[in-house]
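Appendix B. One record, verbatim.
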Amino acid sequence: QIRGYAVRQEFIHRNYFPLLSVFLSWSGFGREYAADVVRRSLQEHFHLVPSRLRIASRKLKGGNNRPNAVKPDFDWLASLKYHGNLLVFIDTHSDTNTGDLVVSGNATKSTSVPVHELLENYMGVHLQSASQEIRRLNNNCIAGPFIRGIVLCSCGSTGRVTSSVNRLKKLVEMDIFDFVLSFAGVYTVDSLVVPALGRFVVYIWTHGRR
């Protein structure tokens, strides 16, 4: 009975910190299946306190790389004195040879850039400032700990090609994010990976598991 009680307590533990989630999805998909599933999962788990969840969504397409478009969303986190978690969810294709992420074009002719360029082009100084402030809070044990993570729903080359993997590792080594989740291999099938991604996001950002 004691063991069962402990398991139950572990299961119902919740992370009550606010969450800023930024979804960047390639326009070439036509519909945002992966991002939509994860967004709905988060909304369901924050339905009792919807004011603690802020969702920003941007299309990855030519001419849409305007960092100030997400300024109001990062201002929301700043208004909370950065006492919150941060999720960046990127849903796109990747270049088979380089692992770079597709940001514009179509299925037959596309343009791809390294992950750090994508982040700079779509969030710029706003991501940098938020990440630094959350790091300061965590390092000084002022509050939290708060979670900064990036989830990549793309083909496996992003997590397989050495140069791409090194760039992903840099995001953690430079203390921009606490972790990066990416697939490795060849192709990913949305119907197989998206349900698992949704559970992972809920597990980390609503139950506070690290």
